[in-house]
Amino acid sequence: MDVYQAIADPSRRKLMELLSHEERSVQELVPYFDVTLGAISQHLKVLLDSRLVERRKQGRFRFYRARPERLREVHEWTRQYEEFWKSRLDRLGDYLDEQS
Amino acid sequence: MKFNIAFDRVYSHSLESVWHALTDPAALGQWLMKTDFVPEEKRSFQMWCENSHGGTDRYLCKVLAIEPPVRMLWSWTLDGRQREGETLVEFELAEVANGTRLKIRHSGNRDSATIDAFKSGWPYKLATLDSLLGTQ
User: Fold this and answer.
1) How many separate domains does chain A show?
2) pLDDT in tens, A42-51
3) Fewer CB under 10 Å: which end of chain B, C or N?
């Protein structure tokens, strides 16, 4: 699953938000959801596989944290298109001036 | 991926000149990208552009609508990124007092789940996340 599909799910976006501010265990995430711990673990696995979240083991606990740098890649894509069109529209102006 | 960017420029040239620059393959090659574009509805075409890694990006495109000399809609997909869905590029021209106004809208057209995700304000959240981290 790519990063876009991973964040298409509302529960996973909520997880990303919760984990972007602080590291939490699955148990700590449960109260924020109406679904089972198992379901949350499944969503976390998707986020882990997409490298949107990373996991740290401490004793028998596992803590999860969002990796916002992965999200910036999504942002970056729009920004690249913006830069692209701005420079091309400048070139269109130059082209039109040369033709006249 | 759902995104929607728009540009609005006025060029001090005639509507016909600007339309020509948008629909003539040689002209497009001068300012946009090398292309085998044909200004006919439903015609597929490609565009090529050198990328920053020294390679060539290829775009698979199609004329979805064309209304000379005022409006044109392209489907526009980076080859190899089809999974991210096609994007749409719309050109709109209008005569104004001092020349021609060109509006371009470029939008992403992802699957419905992703579109829902982005409608729910996710890009805003991304921006917030960036500002929180102070890295953008």
Assistant:
1) 1
2) 999 999 998 8
3) C
Please give the single-letter amino acid code of residue B124. Answer: Y
Contact call for B111 and A8, based on CB within 8 A? yes
The two tokens of residue A53 are 């979240």
User: What is the CATH number for A95?
Assistant: 1.10.10.10
Q: Which residues of chain B have pLDDT under 70?
A: 1-2, 82-85, 109-136
- Give percent above pLDDT 70 in chain B: 74
Residue A66 near residue A53 (C-beta atoms within 8 A): yes
- Backbone torsions φ then ψ of B93, nearest 5 degrees: -120, 145
Phi first, then psi, for residue B37 (nearest 5°) are: -55, 135
> Tens digit of pLDDT for each residue in A55-76?
999 998 999 999 877 777 666 7
Distances (CA, A) of B47 to A28, B35, B56, B59, B64: 50, 4, 10, 5, 16
Q: Which domain holds residue B18?
A: 4-109
Q: Give the B-side interface with A, CB within 8 Å.
A: 1, 3, 5, 7, 9, 11, 13, 17-18, 21, 27, 30-32, 83-84, 87, 102, 104, 106, 108, 110-111, 113-114, 116-117, 120, 122-123, 125-127, 129-130, 132-133, 135-136
Question: Domain range for residue A53?
Answer: 3-99
The pTM of the full predicted model, rounded to 2 decimals, is 0.63
Rounded-to-integer distance, Cα B130 and Cα A44, Å: 22
